[in-house]
Design goal:
binds zinc ion, 8 strands, 8-stranded parallel β-sheet, TIM Barrel, alpha/beta
Length: about 220
């Protein structure tokens, strides 16, 4: 079996195919893995936009460059800078358009309406990974009117969801799996749980994740 893909993580794990999301200020070297770069809404700073563009120019043609992010809005953490968050999110979407970036990784906490409004304003209409998705189906439909959407779920969230959950209402072809910054989570168990939910073999889930990976990857 191929290595399991972790679509959004902040840690390198040798037994997985990792897509590691770096904050622009913390990007250093990449250990033979796929990566994204962006400005996280918790770590907003005006000067980072220029830094991000400079870095993007040197990185986006690399075969390991996956996309932009994570970026987005958070109404709980760093709420005092919510206005700035929106400006920085919009600036990053404009960079995505300028450099024809195929995929962005979106962080969203209680701010779907503002996210949708800014997406509409900028006209970004490519792929969006809705990382650690917690919204409902109706919200997914709103995103789907604007972009190609890929809701991504944490492995332990999948493990704790039953067949009756909203998860099984989502087309399997769009579902992704991640560990984010949680080192205690078993990606393997998440793949097994996903296979069970959709009546597939684990190997079928792995192959499907690789198909999605190829669609989303920049180069
Ligand atoms: Zn993250």
């Amino acid at each position: 079996m191929d290595k399991l893909i972790d679509f959004h993580t902040h840690h390198y794990k040798p037994n997985h195919t990792n897509i590691i999301s770096y904050d622009v200020a913390k990007f250093s070297e990449v250990k033979n893995d796929y990566f994204t770069i962006g400005i996280h809404p918790w770590w907003i700073q005006e000067q980072k936009i220029k830094q991000l563009e400079e870095l993007l120019i040197t990185q986006y043609n690399k075969s390991t460059f996956f996309g932009l992010g994570e970026m987005g809005l958070d109404k709980i953490r760093n709420k005092q800078k919510y206005q700035k968050q929106q400006e920085v999110f919009e600036a990053q979407l404009n960079l995505a358009l300028k450099y024809k970036i195929k995929t962005i990784i979106l962080h969203n906490v209680k701010s779907h309406s503002d996210t949708l409004r800014i997406l509409k304003q900028t006209g970004f209409n490519n792929n969006i990974i809705l990382h650690d998705y917690h919204g409902n189906e109706e919200t997914l439909n709103q995103y789907a009117k604007l972009c190609h959407i890929y809701p991504s779920f944490k492995a332990n969230f999948i493990c704790h969801n039953s067949k009756s959950s909203m998860l099984t209402q989502i087309p399997f072809d769009s579902i992704l799996i991640e560990t984010d910054d949680d080192l205690s989570v078993s990606l393997e168990k998440g793949y097994e749980a996903l296979a069970k939910l959709f009546n597939l073999s684990t190997d079928q889930v792995v192959q499907s994740m690789y198909n999605k990976f190829r669609k989303l990857k920049q180069n």
